[in-house]
UniProtKB/TrEMBL annotation:
GO cellular component, as recorded: plasma membrane
Predominant subcellular localization, coarse grouping: membrane
InterPro entries named in the record: Bax_inhibitor_1-related
Similarity section: Belongs to the BI1 family.
Membrane topology: Multi-pass membrane protein
Coiled-coil region: none
Keyword ATP-binding: no
Annotated Pfam families: Bax1-I
The species this protein was found in: Neisseria brasiliensis
Protein name: BAX inhibitor (BI)-1/YccA family protein
Amino acid sequence: MQNDVYDYTSTGSAVQKNTVLQKTYRLLGLSFIPAMAGAFISSKMGFSIYSILGGGWMATIAFFVFFYAMVFMIEKNRYSNTGVTLLMVFTFGMGVLISPLLQYALGMSNGAQIVGIAAAMTAAVFFTMSAMARRTNINMSSLGRFLTVGAVILMIAVVANLFMQIPALSLTISAGFVLFSSLLIMFQVRQVIDGGEDSHISAALTIFISLYNIFSSLLHLLLALGGDD
């Protein structure tokens, strides 16, 4: 008589990965609540860090200090509830930071439509790349190297354009961020599925930043191409 042997270890691993992915999506959805609250409160108060610091280098430095300091602290607490709290603080702050762009867009006659289109396109990208992550046969190691190189190129371009202030380069950078962030979503979701990422906090952080970049970049592009004062 042959005994049926079931690999519970393998099943448990698959269940664990699926649980991490589900927690990632739930935390990601939750993270947009403080982000929207930050944007709303900032717009109602008329608060803008760019106006306070006079724009230019000071505002840029303040943004990068906040961004990288928060990312560092979240990653350091990626397995604890402290990480979740820090993520909520981070997304609230990012909502505050994007508020001036939203106010500018909504001040246009077709601004609400442009913001809506950017949001819809961002959602479409997220669902598409998440679905592709489950079915793609792309080598994730190669994609990871491509994303690393892409991140370096984008950062160099951003810094360079702070000096040159070339509109065409700014639009190119925005388009680059849309492509880069879209691929990063697919990469991150696939990492969770393959077990390469076991922290839903870290995964949610990466995807949130990607969606934030996609939305803000699409908004820049749409305002430049279809804005109407």
